[in-house]
Protein 1
Amino acid sequence: MPDPAKNSDKDDPRIICFDNREDDKIFDGSVTRLMQRMQERSRDKFINEENILRMNHGSTWVHSARDPEPDTSMHTISAEWTIPFKEIANNDLSLISRTILPINESMEAQFAQNIYGVVGAAAEKVGNVVDAKASGSFAHSMLEMFRKIEIGVDRDGNISMPQMHVGPDLYKRLPEELANVPPELEAEIERVKAEKIEAALRREAERKAKFKKPAK
């Protein structure tokens, strides 16, 4: 009777790097764990670890009774690479970093594109979009942004201020733009921000008040 394990080995299109199949599994597992750690560090650049949720394959985040969201489906992130046989034959160990790092960078770029696309679509749907050109200046854009957003609290009830993610060009100009905000606009921004913080604390207090307190 034929050995199924031998047949499966012949059907496997991958190039086997080790004579011992168990060594192959150990190597594959090591590379997978390394890529997982690198991807976790990349993800942490964009999303707070406390805000990470997981779902079963094929599912969505949204309950069927709620209004449909712009995009709650899974997105595939993938990368392809070519490894020259000559460098493998020469035992060039630098090939490992020169292969894995570009893979991680490619997957990080795809992740960023996906997350900004989903956030942008959600913002468009509710009208939380600021046109910098129409606003007239960076300071006016900041003021309009604070008027549109809703500040929240973290799991400990502390204020969680929004993050600002900008492109390379604005990143270079940002210190100068912040330094040139007129005093009257800066005061108005702080006033609006204080109102938003007060509203966030009030909502959190109302939320906590809905829970019954244990009898003493």
Protein 2
Amino acid sequence: ETPEWVTDGSADKVAAAVLDWALRNNATLYCHWFQPLGSSGLRHGMTGQVQNSMFEFDKQGLPKWSFTASNLLKGETDGSSFLHGKMRATHSAGAYAVLDPTSPIFLRGDTVFIPSCLVSYNGDPLDEKTPLLRAADALSREGKRLLKHLGYEVSGVHANIGLEQELFFVPREAYNRRLDLQMTGRTVLGRDAPRGQELCDHYMAPPSLSSPALSCMQDVQNQAFKLGIPLRTRHREVAPNQYELASLYGTMTTQIDQNLMVMQICEEVAVQHGLAALLQEKPFQGVNGSGKHNNWSIATSDGTNLLNVKQLQATTGTGEIFPVIMAAIVKAVFQHGDLLRLAIACPGNDFRLGACEAPPALVTTHLGDDMTSFLEGYINGSSEPYTAQTKQLDLGVSVLA
């Protein structure tokens, strides 16, 4: 949580532990793993890396395995061939991959993966993660400041997310015949399928034991679990051959890194089952496209969910904090809806609009009747705590409560 660990000797201990862990698992390489700008839908895995061996010779010329704090904290590479928006001068083409301590190191195959940021020679971000961490810093800094004014002192505030990954698994033999699918991720030519999702027969239907899609998802879950990624949910989605995998929620940076790896695993494992994994938003016209629902919340560093009314009130002893948090969120969405949409919905998402698919080109905070009534009452001076209203449904069946 603090940068002092880099210089107080802790980094050396971490590097030594990583080396011991790697060698015990027959891993002899490491890489700084980053997400270059503009890589979505273009490069395999949407990430970049250079895999380096831990083998070297000591001063006496004897072979040894070595992984130091310097190796852990930073890697240097050529930044000239990444998208940079003219932030990199020709005479300073170097780039640095810097360890992101908010996301855990993991091991895959013979390589240790070190989640990292990629910056230019002058410190300009060449990746997607550096701006994300800047936003995380701003959230923590201003969140602490706000809560302190409300009488609740915390050491930090962070975002938790849970990502739901939708995708298509299609026969690879058919995929190999479609150059448009291979090059763009979408079918550009041809007719609509003679049968789509009109009968609603695919959504949450039982995965067939005779289908390679089920065995593929099982392998994806097994490989992900070995990397410390618990994929909790799998099911059929609305469109034919469309599926969803969802992981347990967690901190923002960890969840994003894990989702990147899950998508890469899906693409690789699908090949082994004679399938192709399609991750583009709208591969086929006339049926649903694939989304990535982002279930978002904010919490303090001690684990208090700021959107959980009962937990927040039990921790702080006051009901004054929750409505202020809600007001800040509503104002942020109202004031910065254009930036939110820019960050959330890329142009490919426009193909998904309408029907029961993606939301329209509006970013809103639909609070529901209970929350709206509570906030209106609070504005008018009410001190009643927020309580989600429930009602008993009569299903006409005695054994169903």
